[in-house]
Design brief:
about 0% strand; 2 domains; about 210 residues; about 65% helix
Length: about 210
């Protein structure tokens, strides 16, 4: 990580928005994302006990992805159609994998969900990482391909090379480095990881990168 560039981005952002994500202008800008409401709703939907009913879990995955402002209008119906196409065993596999992502062996869960997405040619970073970042907003990260590529390049994240095909090794390495970056800036820029990556995206946009 190039700490100098990160601190420069922090200084520039705070010069414009002194309270970080508590600044009134930023609050207005991010209002459309309904982030806090999404976090609460998703944490309620996917508590461990609810995974007894896989059909309900799958339907809730579709519902929440459909409501997320961070998922493209193209991907939302594609995911809905994917879930509709799954047979009983595939629904069970999807929900077992998702349960592990949130409550158990994350690597196993990631790869199980990825396998289902791959089976319908819908292996997208955004679909894999959006719900966990709402459920564990301080531990998981949302991988938006364009942002991830630019963050890796500009901030010189070591030993990371973006690949469009999702894989656990990249995700875990990227997650660790994003958390490390967040630890070096004002807490007002990282009330949660979605906000922190939003700060990085806005900073890169201001630099026209």
């Amino acid at each position: 990580m190039n700490l100098k560039k990160l601190k420069q981005a922090e200084a520039s952002f705070l010069a414009n928005y002194p309270k970080g994500f508590g600044d009134p202008e930023i609050k207005e800008m991010v209002k459309k994302h309904n982030l806090n409401r999404m976090i609460v709703q998703i944490q309620e939907s996917f508590v461990k006990v609810n995974f007894k009913n896989s059909r309900v879990i799958a339907d809730d995955m579709v519902r929440h992805i459909g409501r997320s402002s961070m998922i493209s209008l193209y991907e939302k119906p594609k995911f809905r159609e994917l879930v509709k196409s799954l047979n009983y065993a595939e629904i069970e596999a999807l929900c077992s994998g998702f349960r592990n992502m949130l409550h158990g062996e994350k690597k196993i869960g990631f790869e199980m969900v990825l396998s289902i997405l791959q089976s319908r040619k819908l292996a997208k970073w955004s679909l894999l990482t959006i719900l966990p970042v709402y459920f564990h907003p301080h531990d998981e990260v949302f991988v938006k391909p364009t942002t991830a590529k630019k963050v890796i390049e500009y901030f010189e994240l070591s030993e990371l090379q973006y690949r469009p095909q999702p894989n656990w090794e990249f995700y875990e390495a990227y997650r660790r480095q994003i958390l490390d970056m967040a630890s070096h800036v004002s807490p007002s820029l990282s009330p949660n990881n979605a906000a922190f990556t939003g700060f990085l995206m806005m900073s890169l946009g201001a630099l026209k990168i």
